[in-house]
């Protein structure tokens, strides 16, 4: 129990502050609801007013509240250096992990893009492989060479020149 409280000091501070603020509100509501019914003549002093002024000076809950807040502040100040030291030690590790996560996300994105590219290339190659090859016979090949000579540039534009120059 004590370890839980010491490990969760901010939570304890919040809970105690909430309880104290609720108690303070209840005290304020009681003070406003009690008004004197018959005011005294101006010449006489009211004993109730004297009691109220002494009550306003220091209420027991206010004193308790201040004491608790002071204890909590001291406790927080006592543990603050260790918490800040731990935070300083942890920060570089957190930053390193963040960079690792970012790098991993980038590499994952690159790998996904590469995967989709390879997948589309594979499907394109499979489609090409499934097409039937044209029927190539020797006669068709000879015919293709003849047509390239007929449709190509004239021989005068590309004369035959031997490499033997004497």
Between the first and last Cα atoms, what is the distance in angstroms? 110 Å
Question: What is the subunit organization of this protein?
Answer: single chain
| Overall strand count | 0
Task: Give the SSE order as H and E letters.
Answer: HHHHH
Cα-atom radius of gyration: 47 Å
Structural class: mainly alpha
Number of helical stretches of at least 4 residues: 5
* Overall pLDDT metric: 79
Q: In this structure, how is the largest beta sheet organized?
A: none
The share of residues in extended strands comes to under 5%
Are there runs of 5+ residues with pLDDT below 50, and where?
none
Query: Which percent range fits the helix content?
Result: over 70%
Taken from the alpha-carbon principal axes, the silhouette is rod-shaped
